[in-house]
Structure formats: structure tokens, C-alpha cells
Amino acid sequence: MKNRILQTIRQHQMLEKGMHIVIGLSGGPDSMCMFDVLCRLAEDWQLTLHPVHVNHKFRPGAAEEDQAFVEDFCSRYDIPLYKGGAAVETGPKGLEAAARDARYAFLRSLNGTIATAHTADDNAETVLMHLLRGTGLRGLGGVTPKSEGLIRPMLDVTRAEVEEF
């Protein structure tokens, strides 16, 4: 897994030595896998990692369990976890979109390049959604591996590979 992600990082020139990486860490398999791999790369790349968990409290009980899991995982690496929470109201795009916007706003408020754990499956889903809504050529490209202040080092990894890891 480490080599696959490292290949994507190199191919898209996502990292430079000494970078500060803000890691979106939900507690799900994808983000935990990415965090684990970035921890393994941190020393060689001289990375400073800033894992971040945002709890919207959508699932009472389960949301707190996710946060506790992430806190425990970060403590094993002796890396402080940044926590955020934002009350989210359903907007014109829906609750999930409003929550995503709130998460990204919090991530962007921190200093560093944001790393999210979007996989090849997420990318395929995005392209399919764009097709169903009607899209131009840009929408057919799906999720970009790297954009202003944001990297997605797991775009060449499938969800099945994450679960196997």
C-alpha cells in the first residue's frame, strides 16, 4: 500500500520535504489507511502531520465512538489530533454538501496542505454522478489528484485494497 500511494505522490508531485500536511481523518478505513501511510513517510519526507477530525454529531453515540477511535489511533503515533465540530444546517445542496463545506472550511483554517483519502472508487462515483447530472469534459475528469492546497494521494487505490490493507 505504501508503495502504491508513494507512486501516486511522486507522479503528481504532491509532496516536498518539510511540508505541513493537514489530514482529514474521519475514522473510516480510507482516511485511517492514508494516515498510517503518511506516518510511515513522515520521517523520510520530513513531514509535519496534523490529523484533523470534525464531528458533526450526525450519529449520536457513533460519532463519539469515531472520534474516540481517531484520538486513540493518533495517540499511538504520539501525534496530536486537531478536533473541530460545526453545527450544520441543510442548505440548498443538502446536508451532506453543507457538512463537507464545513469540514473543508475548518481544514483550510489550519496551516498546511490538506490531504484527503479519496480513492479510485470515489473518483468513479464522482464521474458517474457528473454524467447523470449532465457534464462537460471537465466533469468527466473526476476528482483531481492535486489542486490548490489539496492533495489526494489515494486516488489510485481501490476501496477493496484499503480494506485488505
For the structure shown, list the relevant keywords.
single chain, 165 residues, alpha/beta, 6-stranded mixed β-sheet, 13% strand
List the helices and strands and how they pair.
Blueprint: H1 2-11, E1 20-24, H2 29-45, E2 48-54, H3 62-76, E3 82-84, H4 95-108, E4 113-115, H5 120-133, H6 137-140, E5 146-147, E6 150-151, H7 159-164
Parallel strand pairs: 1-2, 1-4, 2-3, 4-6
Antiparallel strand pairs: 5-6
Question: What does this entry look like structurally?
Answer:
- The chain is an alpha/beta fold.
- The protein is 48% helix and 13% strand.
- The chain is built from seven helices and six strands.
- Strands 3-2-1-4-6-5 form a six-stranded mixed sheet, sandwiched between helices.
- Strand 5 and strand 6 form a beta hairpin.
- The termini are close together.
- The mean pLDDT is 88.
